[in-house]
Model the fold of this input.
Amino acid sequence: MPETVRSFAKINIGLCIGRLRPDGFHELRTVYQTIALHDVIRVEVKRGTGIEIRCADPRVPRDDSNTCYRMVDIAMAALKARGRAVVNIEKRLPVRGGLGGASSNAVAALVALERVLKKKLPGPEKLRIAAAVGSDLPLFLIGGTVLGLGRGEEVYPLPDMPALPWVIATPAIAISTPQAFRDWDARGQQPDRADARTAIAAKLTGSTCSDRITEFGRAVSAWLGSQYRDRIRSSSGVLAHGKGRAESPLLELVHTGIENDFEQVVFPQYPELRELKRVLECAGAVYASLSGSGSAIYGLFSSQRKAEQAVAKLRRQGTAALVTTTLTRLEYWKQVWRQQD
Done:
């Protein structure tokens, strides 16, 4: 029997690019957050051999360059399964939009395949396979709010973010992540005038990629420590900082000032994305940022009304946008298996 699952998107709340590692990847620090936008993945195993990828979107590859293909190929061998695996991808998320659609699709294909075959891989094995296929696949095996280290594949669950309105703007621009990294490396050798102050500060202070990675880690660690302190004080009947609203943890995280480094190379090439961020901020976003290497731009809003007003403004300007919400870890897994619309 075929199995159908939802394949959810993510955003990056801050993304710090560190040094180039010996394995060719960059050291990264980021906070991933799953959100309620999704694709739909349907998996079945028939008689025969091989893997077949089906998708109506012509931009989605159907050969072994597809992350679902690679994931299913490895998983079939690990599960000692035989047959022809057919993966049908219903795209609702933008391709190359920075929302992790391809990676999420691959993880959704894996969990659907396990149910089809009535076999399960151990959790650590699934994480290992996911990391071998792509850097941001492992986060989708956890869901909710996740700390990403290493090249992004080393993942740790964080306290869940509350459900607040997020506006996701998805302009019709496809950005290559490998090219964005190459642009970052080239820019590090020849900073442009827009980054003159950063370059001068680096020379004066001796700031390096390692320093920036450390600062990002300190910001998140300080935030995480405050959350645990708040929980302890709340459990004793005393609300920390005098706050009783659920949004406090999220607002405290974005107020640490963490940013997405990709903005420094993507915005100069696509100034319309910088403008979208500005529109969100002017519309009242508490925090706005590029997700991943883009092109999706998102904004956090304090109310549904403000978020809807921002979406209406973006649409009037010709940009596709909608309101969504974060998914806690529990809600993420409940929604993965929820009966399809």
